[in-house]
Amino acid sequence: MALLSPALHDVVGLQLPASTDPPLSSHPAKHKVWIVFGATGHIGRSLVKSVLAHGDQVTAVGRMMENTLQQMQGWHEHCLGMLCDVRVRPTVQAVMDKSVERWGRIDIIVNCTGYGVLGACEDQDACDLRSQFDINFMGTLNIIQLSLPIFRQQAANRDDDENAGRYIIFSSTSGALGVPGLGPYCATKYATEGLVESMLYEVDAFGIKATLVQPGHMRLNEPGSGGSAADTLDTREDGTDLKLRKYGHFLVKKSSEPYDTPTAPASHAKRVVQWLLDRQPVSAFKSAELVWQLGHCRYPPLRLILGSYAVESVRDRLRSVTEEIEDWKHLSFGVSDTRDKTDSKDAQDDEQTGEGEHQGHPGAMDDATAMDESIG
């Protein structure tokens, strides 16, 4: 695995704000140990290269179906290549044990694994649903549960200005809004976001931090990386033969007759993914540099959105939710048994001004346009 230039932050031109206490040339970062799950995917490869270019050590974890140990043996001396299926807890445990044995500690764990099916909710069978939840949600939970004991043990020996451990979980803008054609995938991302946000309250006292990265559609191929954006998947995990198109980590499901029309909302996600392949993509190279900085800063954000369209998508969604709450709060306050005077006054003011009398909400159209960059 070839190294990139050491001065990546100078090339990329991106720097976390001073409020996060990021690594600077005047105050260099200490070398850290990373585990990157999904290291053979497009963002995972870029991240491993960035980590190695900065002099850190990394356990690069690939999927058993994509790599062999022989292929990984030729990687950089600071890189330990391992195979793992995040759905299978013993393989995740083996990664933790081997990493501690090799490096002596674990500082940062990144999960880049992901799998999605493009198709109407009605068209996705039990195998489609289970595969997405097992990889996207249960895989993340397995990683967290099996690494937390290591981080908590490290917490007892850490310096006051150091974190005991860091999680960087790649979520998606699909974890912030629903996307037609990606219902179950969105559900896995919503679940992951809720899991990580809840866990942070539980582990904050141990000095453990986490960031949810919400990328827009990631560019599949950086210059010189080779490969194809779209591949054909011939077999399924249960052995069933398929001849379906695969874009990145998304499997395109053939639409049933009710949803097989050019303008069907259920085909929206497929159209967006195909359209975005060469338009306004998020650079995996630049994203990897920001993620490296996240691993080394002292006060990381809970969420980091990558890509201008992704920012607009999430912002429009939050705006529409806020507007809908304001439109209907007179009913929300009305069902309370005990209301303070402020809430009562707000509800009365809204009734006098006529708010909340229409069905829909002002941000509804914003949601539709916001979906264009909600595939991550």
Automatic annotation (TrEMBL):
Biased composition (Basic and acidic residues): 337-347
Any one GO molecular-function label of the UniProt entry: oxidoreductase activity
Top-level taxon: Eukaryota
Disordered, as annotated region: 335-376
Entries under InterPro entries matching the protein: NAD(P)-bd_dom_sf, SDR_fam, SDR_oxidoreductase
Pfam families associated with the record: adh_short
Gene3D superfamilies: NAD(P)-binding Rossmann-like Domain
Record bears the keyword Cytoplasm: no
Keywords: Oxidoreductase
Membership in a protein family: Belongs to the short-chain dehydrogenases/reductases (SDR) family.
Name the record gives this protein: NAD(P)-binding protein
Organism in which the protein naturally occurs: Peltaster fructicola
Lineage: Eukaryota, Fungi, Dikarya, Ascomycota, Pezizomycotina
